Amino acid sequence: MKPVRVSLFSRNLWLLVFLFLAGLGSGTLALREWVQKPRITLIAELLARQIRLAQAGLEALPPERRASMRPWLNARSGGAILVPVAEADPPALRGIEAMPLTRQLVNDLSMRLPGVVDEVRWNPQQRGTLWAKVAVAGVEYWFVERDVLPDADYPLTGLGVLAMSGALSLAGAIAIQRRINRPLSRLVEAARLIARGETPPPLSEREPREIATVASAFNQMTSSLAQLDAERAIVLAGVSHDLRTPLAKMRLAIEMLNRNGDTSLIDSMLRSTQEMDQITEQFLHFARASGVEEMSCSDLNQIVRECAVIYEAAARAPILDLRELPSVRLHLPSIRRAIYNLIENAYRYGAGEVRLTSGCGNGTVFVSVLDRGPGIAPSEIEAVRKPFVRGASSAGTGGAGLGLAIVDRIIRLHGGRLELLARDGGGLEARIQLPPAPADPMPAPE
């Protein structure tokens, strides 16, 4: 089962959301313990004092004056009133279960008035109303205090805070992701350029220390690879160039012996020197296939026709099946060499006719060289793209194993890809895929 990969943006977002919720929970707990609970305790103390004063004031009066004095006290108590039990309609007992802070208020009030308050009830409407049953000289009254709790809209405030926190978390994740993603994107693009055989520009090291360390290491690796590739090209070019002079002298000497020597031996020596000359030529082409400067928009079909004309004189011209193609940005000498190498391989390792086709598909322009040879085993397809590697089916034939390596390097420098596919009915299809020119639309595939 393929593992699920979570993006860095998702990780940053969830981390910020978790940290904010943890901070919000801690702040809520601190608010409750250090602000709300002390406030409730203070409210309970004030209510207890008010109830004691009301009780003591009524008990100090003569019985005949209590009934007339009670309205006067209610009018001057600042909201609290005394109502006889028979005249009141208190809320149900379950009202005190509404909120934890309400339970704290009721418990604190009961603890401060033991034996004075027989029963406490709570109505959560209109910022809360407290009902406390108090006995005054044998007569039971309900002490009613309205607007006990301060004015606050906790649900809407909480939703607003959560919405703002979500927006801030998302904005923070986007900001962090952009700061990290920009250098990573440049690193990915540079790695892709190296995969295509190009040398990317140095990465900026004016970044945070961790990213700057990665950029510095990548720049050193790029420089080392470019230097190694240049040295290899110089060595190959030098060796190949130095070998061509003695080969020419050997061929001249063999031809001078042609009059008096063994004809079959001389022909064999001439074929050997010709094969050696072809190998050195491949070395030179491989060393030179390191850049595609001076690219221009060209007709790929025309280049295919020019390569096919070379074989007409030898009476083995390939069959052409070319479709309409858009213009492609090409380095003409390099593309000619690539197509010529594929045709040469098809005639060398294949059997029978060679067919050249072209067309468009999946946003690319392609040219295929098809033969009826033994093909290439699937396990060897990636290996034969490398220099000096030959497939098992090429045993006993000439060559140095550089033909496909040269083609692969040239096509990658053009931003394309070389595919080696098994052909229906046997054989090999070597397909060159190239991107079309940016301003040239793709024709509809037939």
Q: Which short descriptors sum up this protein?
A:
single chain; 446 residues; alpha+beta; five-stranded mixed sheet; four-stranded antiparallel sheet; rod-shaped
Layout of strands and helices, then pairs:
Elements: H1 8-59, H2 63-75, E1 81-84, H3 100-112, E2 117-123, E3 129-136, E4 139-146, H4 154-195, H5 209-256, H6 263-288, E5 296-298, H7 300-309, E6 319-321, E7 328-330, H8 332-349, E8 355-361, E9 364-370, H9 403-413, E10 417-422, E11 428-434
Parallel strand pairs: 6-8
Antiparallel strand pairs: 1-4, 2-3, 3-4, 5-7, 8-9, 9-11, 10-11
Helix pairs in contact: 1-3, 1-4, 4-5, 5-6, 7-8, 8-9
In short:
By secondary structure, the chain is an alpha+beta fold. 52% of the residues lie in helices and 14% in strands.
Explain what this protein looks like in three dimensions.
The protein is built from nine helices and eleven strands. The strands form three sheets. The chain has a five-stranded mixed β-sheet with strand order 6-8-9-11-10. The chain has a four-stranded antiparallel β-sheet with strand order 1-4-3-2. A hairpin with a 5-residue loop joins strand 2 and strand 3 (129-136). It is rod-shaped, with a radius of gyration of 46 Å. The mean pLDDT is 76. Helix 1 (8-59) runs antiparallel to helix 4 (154-195) and helix 8 (332-349) packs antiparallel against helix 9. It has 446 residues and is of the alpha+beta class.
